[in-house]
Protein 1
Amino acid sequence: MLKSIAKSLVIASAFAASLQVNAEPVNLDELLKTLEQGKMFQSQENQRREAEFKAQRDQQVRLLNEARNERDNQIKLSEKLETQFEENEFKTADLQEALDKRMGSLKELFGVLQQVAGDAKNKFSTSLISAQYAGRDVVMDELAQKMGKSSKLASIEEIEQVWFALQREMTESGKVATFNAPVVLQSGDKVEKEVVRVGAFNLVADGKYLEYVTETGTLAELSRQPSERFLAGAANIQTGNGELVQFALDPTGGSILGLLVQAPDLKERVEQGGTVGYIILAVGLVGLLIALIRFVGLAVVGAKMHSQLKSDVAKDNNPLGRVMKVKDDNPDADVEALELKLSEAILREVPKLSRFLTFIKIISVVAPLMGLLGTVTGMINTFQAITLFGTGDPKLMAGGISQALVTTVLGLVVAIPTVLIYTVLNTRSKNLIYILQEQSAGIIAERSEKGA
Amino acid sequence: MLAFWEMFEAVRGFMETGGQVLTLIAGLIFIMWIVILERIGFAFNGYKRVEKQIVSAWNKRDDHSSWEAHQIREAQVSRASIKLNQHIAFLGALVALCPLLGLLGTVTGMIEVFDVMAISGSGSARSMASGVSKATIPTMAGMVGALSGIFALTWLQRNAKRQVELLEDHLEVHR
């Protein structure tokens, strides 16, 4: 027991010794002494720390006080500034009032100036004259914005600038002017060209009408030009020197010419008809070809028959001659047999004369029917568009409607001449057939009487 | 003179509002009436000579009963019938074409209306008015033309038929 205590003590002392003193404790007294010494040392240390903490606390208190002072000073300053602000506000109100009083009618002037500058900006941005004098709308816009803020006043130069710009717009709109400017061609190339401006209405270069693209402020050749007779005037106005020239003017300043691009030409119109339209045209073409062939055929046969009517000798190259030959071939036949033979010969000739005519007739009837078919398919397209997009935008329905109308037109365009051609051909062939049917026997009789 | 000028102005205004198809219809009606007048002139004047000639030639013949005589008579009647019916079928076609051309005008006018609609929207009825008048006036003109022609055509057809029958009666056959 003692041994174990001694042992632990030894260990403890060994620790203590290793911490504080290098002297090795040799006995319990020594150890006690050492412990006492250590305790004393510790308390000394604690006192020192306490003193340090106290010093630090004082420091903090001092700092706090300093901060409080600072805060009080700032509050005082802010109060002072607030009162000053209020005073200043009164002062500015007074001064503003004085300013308003002194500006008086001038203020109205600036309002008008702002309005006029804004209007002028809108006008200049779309005016063709801006193609010659670029950047006018920007200047006007800046001035209008400046007038909008009350902090700045317009200088006399700026006011005069508005006046000058308006005056120039007015003067230039009455002039035919020539200037050089880059022009975007239809191919997309940008080329420097001599441009003629006719008032505020049209721009022309190299006999072609130009459009002024307001978004980019550039000049572009219209992708679709008006018809040839108008372009001649455009070319003359550029080359002509002083004398009067006829010129086609777009009084809307280019918007009619712009719509010209949207209006479809004949080829696009036909394309709007779609498949049905092309079928109608093909059928009409076939009808015309057949009619042409029949025209030539009937004219040749008719001429031969008329020369046969004048001559006494039956020729083999025409229907009448062939019918008349029946009599010559059967000189001994009696009246009944001859009549039978004649009608047989006539029956052989009639189909050759009226060949293909029914086909032309059918085409003249079928073409409007096919137009009707196209109309109905076009209307189906239109109603499909309506079910998909509603009736809000007429442009979406335009495709179906134009198909409906164009096919009807094509059907009529094919039918009208075909009806006329059929009637003319039918009359001709019928007259020839009459000659064969009703007159051949008579002609034979006349011939035999004359010979007798 | 002034009245004539005013009439001319009115006609010109009418033709302009009707569009190109109306010009076509006017041309068609003009041709139609020239043919009609020519036919009427022939029916009252030219045909009388032809008939007299045929009848006198027939009466000059001694032989009015043989097979030859019968055939010659038939041939003469047929020739007269061809002369009387000349251009009548053409006239019928012209009358039939009048409403067709009117329809063509209607459809082209409607195309113009829809063009205007596609460009300016359906809001402005005024900009569509020109297309609408181009659609309606040719239809009316076509109808008027067809109606005016159809009376003359019917009379000419009946007259031709009657004249042929009369001719057949005048060429007497003896047995």
Protein 2
Amino acid sequence: MEIDLTRGSIERVETDQRDTELYLGGLGTNAKILWDRVPPEVDPFSPDNLLIFSAGLLCGTPATGSTRTIVSTISPQTKLMAFSMMGGFFAPELKYAGYDKVILRGKSPDLVYLWIHNDKVEIRDASHLRGKGAVETEGLIKKELNQPKAQVASIGLAGENRVFFASIEQGRSSASRGGIGAVMGDKGVKAIAVRGTRDVHLARPAEFMGLCDEVLEYIKFRNENPIPGVMPILAGLGSPQEMAIHDEKWHTENFMWGNSRVRRKDFWTEEVANQWTETMDKARIRLLSCYNCPMTCGATISMPGHPTYMMKCFSKLTYTMAAFSDLDFGLRIAQRATEYGVDGFSTPQVMAFGLELYENGILTDDDMAGMPADNEERFFWLLDRIVRREGIGDILADGTYWAAQRIGRGADAYAHNNIKKHEQLPLKLSMLNPIYFLMYATGEKMNITQIEGQFPQAPFPKREQREEFVKDWIQVPDERFKQYFLDWELRGENSIPYYPTVEMCCDIVDWQERMHYIDDALGMCAGLSSFPLKPPYHIHNYPKFISAGAGIEMDEAKLSQAARRYRTLVRAINIRRGMRRKDDRPPKNHWKKRFPELEQKLLDAYYAFKGWNNDAIPTATTLRELNLDFVAEDFFKRGILTDDEDASSKAVLAEQQK
Amino acid sequence: MQKEKKKKIVRRIRINADKCNGCRACELICSAYHAVPRYSSNNPARSRIRVVRDPLADIFIPVYAGDYAVAECAGRDKYIIDGKEYDECAFCRVSCPSREEFKEPDSGLPLKCDMCEGEPEPLCVKWCLVGALVLEEREEAVEDTAVPEEMEELEIGLEALADRYGLGKIKDIVARMSKKD
């Protein structure tokens, strides 16, 4: 469904079956639409930018955990394609209303919300919702429509004020990364409410249900048999079960505090453990799931003096750690942040960055006029300023990269945790990990947790443990991955950074990335597929789900090729927007021990593996092989590729030699 | 004639609302099981079980459909239990004229839980991995008035139609349809 907000028109367009076969759905078809209709000159806040809400291909079917809404647009922060995802209940409801996607273009002159009720679609006035919290808005709209079962995706004040890291909140989830909430606010859309009571059909029902039964059985088995030898959050399924777990030793001692600066190795004492356990037990009312999923990754949280809200995985700790505070503070401020609708990774880091600049004299008392003395109060104060874009808040609302550019005076040295201008997980490690180097550098999802998974993060100390692990490792796309893992040692010749070898790293990263891209087209939660070790969904059963569910004949090779196709298309969109090899790099201080030569080799090999040239641009041959001839033509027309495909890599060499 | 007493396994679903995670898998699988052909489609709006959800008020109550009620009840009270406010309808298992629950969304005909007759356990129970729904079986001596299941469904449906259009009109239509044959 297409909605032109400038003209107030609503149009129903049939989903293109051929595109569905080529790009599957969700992220895949979103990328195709963005390529076709948003040329690189279009600014994120232009009426010509599109904001696409898409249900994944399997959403609304009985496939456990296929709940994800994939929201795609051009990010105000990175100026590249943003494709944030959210779980919850929105995508299935959209399918039950009869739609695969909602495509928003133009800009509404007044604040509006959309009401989609099966065939009936309305653009409604939202002026009375201006300034309301995202969760508050959801409640108000349901009441106003007298539709308690409607699903509402909404923005808070941050989105309305185009904060570059504003999120879209929905149910117990949010689409947070890339600032898509700012684009929604820029379009003058406060919320989308949807209610559907239509049937979603399956192509081959009996076969499909058989597959669902296998997945449910597997989930039960894994719940009863956690994987030995890995930390608790990796031992089971679901996105890290942060709401259920009390032991936060690993995160608090390994992740960085403040503006991603300080590791507190002895933080987790008995006293802290007791205090945090008590806080969590009092605050957590109930563990929650998304639609049709037994994994309970979220929770309702109620802090005294604050309204109840729903929390998902890691925002439990992000504010706490940025402020050097405790869990009580984290849960309190996360309530307000959820109402404002801001990204739980970027926001705490931006605030800590602001305070670090202040402590180092780059921001002055004039910049911070009125700031309280108390540490926790400062965070609340900064959050309020940022979402209102008041004073220093207006600058910080652009995120650490752009704020540093505006502030000058050496502030950019403090924006040290970015990839492609986007705040990353607050992690700083010792020795370069070649697998993670590739994922950080070349990933386009702006979040490492959305690329990793499948392959263990570290070798197991003993050969017997490794042999035990590979025994029932049915998820590997090829037996050779077992050997990579079996031979991987903690020390010696077969250890990091030179083992896994460059070639193995390419292979491993490609597998991990491929699974995530498949999930994002199918609308499957990574927590049951690409993120955990040994998940119920994998490359061997996915083609069967697609064949039996959507009636598209599929096998492993065809599915891998489709994922490669739209993964390349995402890169092509970004290449057309100016991204190149120079942008493919992790934060400078992510690892203390770096290996520049190895890193160049890794990139060279990975680009070749992917069919990209030395400047990270997909070659014409690759593009044609993937039925992306139209991209090749566009690249030639723009001079991004020339007939001599080496030309651009020569340009890079010349640049490097300068 | 004296009706014969017969031993019969009576099945019911015990609800443990404290364990409900609000995922609504029960609604989905119920609607899929009852689709014709079986599993060909799903649509929670057709489900014979539903989860009354209000997450922020911590209200999560799975309810499965009971008998059809011709008239809406006069009650509609509000209850406060453990500080949470419930509408009386939240606990009620009937489909009635005043609400859309347990009715086919397009025909408005009432739906009733049949415990997925023929399956070892109702599928909502099977799909509820968090244990909020548990099957209970006990042997009971019951009067043998059993009507075949599909006849019972037909009867409920007809009753609802008669309620809406009047029995006379239904009879007329049935008569006309019989003539066509």
Protein 3
Amino acid sequence: MRAVCWHGKQDVRVDTVPDPEIVQKGDVIVKVALTCICGSDLHLYNGYVPTMKKGDILGHEFVGEIVAAGPAVTRFRVGDRVIVPFPISCGACWYCKHELWSLCDNSNPNSWMMEHIYGDTGGGIFGYSHLYGGYAGGQAEYVRVPFADVGLEKIPDGIPYEQVVLLTDIMPTGYQAAVYCNINPGDTVAVWGCGPVGLLAMKSAKLLGAERVIGIDRFPDRLQMAHSQCQAEVLNYEEVDVAEQLQNMTGGRGPDSCIDAVGLEARGTGIEDVYDLVKQTLHLETDRASALRQLVKACRKGGTLSITGVYSGFIDKFPMGAIFAKGLTLRGGQAHVHKYLPHLVKLVAEQQIDPSSIITHRMSLEDAPEGYRTFVKKQDSCIKIALKPEHAAQKSEPASA
Amino acid sequence: METSTTEQGRAYRGQAHTRVNVGPAERKASLAGGAALALSGLWSVGRRNYLSGLAMIASGGMLLYRGQTGHCGLYEAIGVDTVHTQESGLRIEKVVTIGLPPHQVYEFWRRLENLPRFMKHLASVQVTGERTSHWKAVGPGGLSTEWDAEMMEDTPGQQISWHSVGSADIPNKGTVEFKEAPGNRGTEVRVIIDYYPPGGTAGRAAARIAHGLNAQQLEEDLKRLKQILEVGEETTARRTVE
């Protein structure tokens, strides 16, 4: 089969590799109908996530049809159309039983790596380095999916793949980011990053009752999308002092909750940005904290910081004093996708939400290298790229908004 | 009150015991070298070489501390212990929480034939009698060694202890404790294994096997045990059947 493989920093290629097989009783093989490039794939692309190996198959957002099922699979049959959550969860450990699905104890066969770095392990993730288990990803024609009975969700008849493919990761990720804000009537939620997760976090915040959402970015087309799709007020952090502007917009209080949908490759302005870039380049810090620092400064007293952007290691100059003085709450982590899937599928079926509205580019899987280049450079107003494994699929064409 | 005091005392002694991780010969060398380094450092500072002088005083002081206390932070960080390796064998201890009641975890372990399913260095364990068994281990490069073991203690649902008997290449003993975890979390399984790696040329192969056994391997073994008991099999990221 054909698959998108990682070969090194900014080097992905479409290779021919052996088809996956049923390895364990609870496995299914999914024929991928649609897969996406996620913003967090760009951290792999840019070489910021350790333990990638040449030939690793990328991708953790994919939907498709079951073409083979192991003997222990009871909830699904060959022919079922399914949504595959990006975290792999065993369903049997204490964390899975407490709906902390992405913190699964058993699904990461390389758990010792994370235990040594972080003190404990998270669950495995499709196509996301050997640190996260070394599972092959979904930017391919076929994928082996373990623990099928635990993770998968059937796609209701009549719903096209495009409307549910983002339910595998960024939609639940944005939704969880908003849930973590513990939104009350009248609340204002500010979201750093108007990429896919940021946009869906804004939509989710509105859905969960936020009165106002404010989107922060530096790309005018992204800010435009936040404004038109999410009815967000927008701030360009290269043009204004974000914390000061947010105070002005909220009666001097600051937003009730702040969502970080940026992560470790955050950009800031001025000397601070240079400081982080230099330190990260010299490996003196692994993650850049410009966005996080702004969140801390801007948030209202007693408010919540909801951190959904990916961080991998250590950051410098983290304003702990402000967190203490303002009594802030920090929440974050990988999305517990399984927990939100049934509800989100219902919302899509009832047409209360259509995540596909943020897909800007549709390509053939064969064009993935071009897709990564376009996405990483944010060219051509690129927000989200969906890849179709069929060779005959249409080439890149921007969606009509 | 009395019980808790005793427990505290025991915990403290346990801590003090693990803190000493530098062997006696090395401690003497540390004291001598540390003193020399600190003195030269003082001399350097006297001659206004502040930076190198202070650095020498600092490292000399660290060596003195290491010699004095027998504790080395660097050794601790990288898992080296020259006291327990050279004199009383190699001790490894790990604990894992498994979401099943103690008696179930105990029963799985008590069927000793199950051990090679999760302990990667074991090729097989054969039960040869009521309290005796025959063990085969494989090490790096396909080296193998065998020994007979005898069970010392067997308290159902709580604890199993064993030790090697006869002329084992790598004399060893071990204990596994099964304790109910708080809040319905299952069982805390604590394993303590002592190996006595042989010296001399005759024991070289066995020593290499023993060398391959370490705390990380035991930790991974226990993770596999947890997967087998909680999930039903060892989890894998493999894409194809080999």
Protein 4
Amino acid sequence: MTETTKARRVGTDKPPTRASKLLQNRWAGIAGLLLALLAPFVNATPYALSVMTSAAIFVMLAAGLNIVVGYCGLLDLGYVAFFAVGAYTSGVLSTRFDLPLLVTVPAVIVVTVVAGIIIGAPTLRLRSDYLAIVTLGFGEIIRITANNLDVTGGPSGIYGIPHLTDSPVIFYYLTVVVVSLAVLGAARLGRSRLGRAWRFVREDEDAAEAMGVHTYRVKLAAYIAGAVWGGLAGVLFAAQLSAISPGSFTFLQSALVLMAVVLGGMGSIPGVVIGAVVISLLPEFLRDLADYRFFIFGVLLIAVMLLRPQGLWPARSKEVS
Amino acid sequence: MTQLVWNGLFVGSFYALVALGYSMVYGIIKLLNFAHGDLYMIGAFIGFAVLGAVGGVSASMALPLLLVVLLATMVLTGLAGVALERIAYRPLRRAPRLSLLITAVGASFALEYGMRAAAGADPRVYPVRLGGTSVEVLGARLTLQQLVLVGVAVVLMFGLNLLITRTREGRAMRAIALDPSTSSLMGIDVNAVISRTFFLGSALAGAAGVMAGAYYGKIDFLMGFLIGLKAFTAAVIGGIGNIPGTMLGGLLLGLLESFGTYWLGGEWRDVFAFGVLILFLTVRPTGLLGERVTERV
């Protein structure tokens, strides 16, 4: 690559406006959490609760993908594969061995870490575009494998996965708590030493390498962290629906998560959370536009990259003034 | 056995045609054009529309008519590719690679679901169907139409190779692949050459789309997704950016799939193909004929 291509940053250096100051405020996160906690008091029909729970799980997915794409600048087009790995691991273990779902969580973490290493280790040494398309292939491999194997129930999937709680309201609150912790964890990771290394790799991999950052290890760490986040979101998903099938883990899902991250603003936690909520709730409000929805999403992706590459709610760098 | 080889070569020639466009674009501007598979789909639908406009024809005229339609479709799909480059890729030529990849994903989405909105979600049945008589050669059953399609694919590929190695235009392309800014100092209109590269690559994808439509008989708006992935795999196997390597990779992937299907069963075909991709990237990321390139800073 030539030097000019590295000049543009993913974040923005413009002075913060009033709106973005509000978003950066530490109370913004607490306000968002309060909003999520109070929502069932406004509308607690089973339908509304399931929509909100799905939105919360989607936020967790977006937070996980944000580690890979937003912090580290690695394009993962098969992120839903880790979601599937998590959901299927906990689903298979809990139905075959009659385990409670909570007990499967350590296994899920181990399996997703292994999956992350298997796919990340060979490709992270190469140019980042290879990673994009290999992850796309990996997403297909996982979906087709789940579709073909007997242990995963074939095309009809697994059903009868035990719920975490019987009440949908309590499950919603549980999800919100887990997701908040996951989002907070991702944000803390982003501010850590490792997070700074990730952003350095994103901005200029060669310079990072020259400054002594072990870029390969750092990239693999981002990839594994993203995999674990996705896998845990998969456990929540399995617990919510109690039935999973390969149809839930298509490329479309991966693309939607990516869209949430890109629209919200890569690397910006508040942006990504808002992006995920918007992307997951929008279809509920735009039922009439169902046919054009994905077309609009595609055009929007291009438009955002051309006009506002930092996303709608961009990250503000605290390191550069 | 020979049947497996023939099936593999037949499917492989489709892969090679689509992979060539991928490989050319990647070779010149280092962009993975995710929307390339969707240009194949657009080609199939353009061919469908053109055939529909021509109306019914007798079976004896099907093949010559198809060749004319093929040419028309190639031109139209090529123009679609040029438009795509102009709108979605050119403004970002100096942007970080991540932005470019994301635009390409967006373009792929917009093309797929734009076509769905325009033509409907149900598969369309191609008005001209190439079935027909089969002949036995060395124990393999192959039809005349298959032979013609492979012949067309081979002619297109050789034409492309001649264009790139023997003409001024091809020399300009190779120069830009080496160093775009120096090429422009040497009087090469870089943007124009990149446009023409997109035209050629998209035209080949469009040709493959029409051929697939006429052979398999059914087209739908998602048909480009899988073949885009397969074409990339083929390009990686042969060495992305290398034209003869890409052709070889396409044929090889077709053969591998054909034998893989025989051993493992059809439901594992795609898993097998992508497994090969990951294996190749681990063991020999530059592909069979690719050169080792060092990253310039």
